[in-house]
Amino acid sequence: VGVVRLLALATLARGLLNIGIVDFRKTLNFRQEFRYGVCEKFSSVAITIGLAFYLRSYWALALAIPIEALIGLILRYTMHPYRPRFSLEKFWSIWSFSMWLLISRIGYFFNARMDQILVGGNFDTSSMGYYNFAADLGELPGNEMAVPMRRAIFPNLATMLSDPKKFDRTILNTVGLAALVLIPVGFGLAAISELLFPLVFGPRWEPAIPLFQWLAIAGVFSGLSAILEIQLLVNCKEKLSAAESWLRALALLTAISFLLRYESLEFISEARMVIGFLFFIVMSRFCTAACGLAMSDIFRAVWRSFFASIVMFLIVSSVDLTLIGASILELAGRIMLGIITYVFIIFVLWILGGRPDGPEKTLWNHIAGSKRWR
User: Fold this and answer.
1) How buried is 247 (Cβ within 10 angstroms: 0-12 exposed, 13-18 middle, 19+ buried)?
2) Taking Cα atoms as reference points, which of 25, 41, 45 lies closest to residue 33?
3) How buried is residue 78: exposed, middle or buried, by Cβ count under 10 Å (0-12/13-18/19+)?
4) What is d(CA 195, CA 319) in angstroms, rounded to the nearest whole number?
5) pTM score, two decimals?
6) Of 119, 33, 115, which is closest to residue 80 (Cα–Cα)?
7) If DSSP states are collapsed to H, E and C, what string results for the chain?
8) Contact call for residues 255 and 277 (beta carbons, < 8 A)
9) 24 vs 56: which has the higher pLDDT
10) Does the structure show a pLDDT above 70 at 324?
11) Measured between alpha carbons, how far is 130 from 332 in angstroms, rounded to an integer?
12) For a pLDDT cut of 90, what percent of the chain falls above it?
């Protein structure tokens, strides 16, 4: 209870943020956006580590979060001259759009926390800790890629609404790029988790491994869905975004409520992965309904990454590298094997497919045009 009260201060601080900093994205001034993000994160990390050494308890994390929010509050007012003031003049014009966006974000909150809420109410604190840790770690790659890409692509797409072909092409390139990097990261982490967890987090976290293997793949689908959703918001189809978020929340609630009778956290993790995959398809369908793309276009943008990642997962998780010695060397060997396998399969599929436009072609042209490479 004390931690929740403390974290509420962070929510209060975020409610007072200077909205003027959004102008950086609107004008594509990502240099200032980068400076703001780096200053906020570096100062937060330094304070958190300092508090951890001083307090030697979880209160270091609880204190660091409102301090980070306070630092962000100060930075926003020092980095942009705009000063907000209280006014209801534009209330209805803003609310007509943001109402549905708010409904959508509440749905996404339940999507992210529904399983943890139900697990916390039906399992002991130890099980809740393992599941929460695995879920947060599994979502990390998707969130860390999807959030920056959404911030960057939104103002760019907004300028392309008058050119539908360019708009659709940019959407496909963005989804293809996200798939090219995000999917192998999720499948790769799942493949090396049995070595990664004991080495990085210690043997006490080994019970979280089977949960993480499913949740890391679920995070892939969540990240790709988040990238696709930005197209709905740019096209003012926020009602479709709200519908998708609440349908997914309802599906999670139904599936997890049914699976609780089996008292298996692994079943719940599997259900989250399956629902993530199904609603990636639903989000793809909603996106095609809002623009000129077809489902086949999205499939062509991501299928090579999915196929190469699955093959990489099977090879990395099954190969025996214990002969090379220490666990850390075996982990490094599996990572290198995964990278080489994935890159090789991706480019073979791309060449066999006739070298279509997409992130592979952009990467190939960059390598081929590099003087250093030649």
Assistant:
1) middle
2) 25
3) exposed
4) 13
5) 0.81
6) 33
7) CHHHHHHHHHHHHHHCCCHHHHHHHHCCCHHHHHHHHHHHHHHHHHHHHHHHHHHCCCHHHHHHHHHHHHHHHHHHHHHCCCCCCCCCCCHHHHHHHHHHHHHHHHHHHHHHHHHHHHHHHHCCHHHHHHHHHHHHHHHHHHHHHHHHHHHHHHHHHHCCCCCHHHHHHHHHHHHHHHHHHHHHHHHHHHHHHHHHHHHHCCHHHHHHHHHHHHHHHHHHHHHHHHHHHHHHHHCCCHHHHHHHHHHHHHHHHHHHHHHHHHCCHHHHHHHHHHHHHHHHHHHHHHHHHHCCCCHHHHHHHHHHHHHHHHHHHHHHHHCCCHHHCCHHHHHHHHHHHHHHHHHHHHHHHHHHCCCCCCHHHHHHHHHHCCCCCC
8) no
9) 56
10) no
11) 25
12) 38
Given a cut of 90, whether residue 212 has pLDDT beyond it is yes
The proportion of the chain whose per-residue pLDDT surpasses 70, expressed as a percent, equals 97
Alpha carbon distances (Å) from 335 to 3, 40, 154, 193, 312: 38, 31, 33, 11, 10
Distance between alpha carbon 338 and the CA centroid of its chain, in Å? 21
**Rounded mean pLDDT of the chain?**
87
Distance CA(338)–CA(360), nearest Å, equals: 18
| Pairwise CA distance, residues 267 & 358, whole Å | 36
Q: How does pLDDT run across 89-144, given as a tens digit for each residue? A: 888 888 887 888 889 889 989 888 888 888 888 888 888 899 999 999 998 888 88
